[in-house]
Automatic annotation (TrEMBL):
Domain annotation Helix-turn-helix: ranges: 5-54
Protein name as annotated: DNA-binding protein
Keywords noted in UniProt: DNA-binding
Domain of life: Bacteria
Pfam families: HTH_17
GO molecular function, one term: DNA binding
Keyword Acetylation: no
Taxonomic path: Bacteria, Bacillati, Actinomycetota, Actinomycetes, Kitasatosporales
Record InterPro entries: HTH_17 (IPR041657), SinI_DNA-bd (IPR010093)
Annotated source species: Streptomyces triticagri
Amino acid sequence: MTAAVLTVPQVAERLRISAWKVYDLIRSRELASFKVGRCRRISEAAVHDYVSRRTEQEAA
């Protein structure tokens, strides 16, 4: 099973937020990411986990 990997602009588009906000989430460790060379990548699973956590926090 291959996990899809997204770029920062792709994550920003999916979440309807700015790329700067995505970088803020990465810096604050709210959104897991990794680097390939100089490029930052985020797995679809990490995006899903972030959205799930935020949804649970808002529901509480």
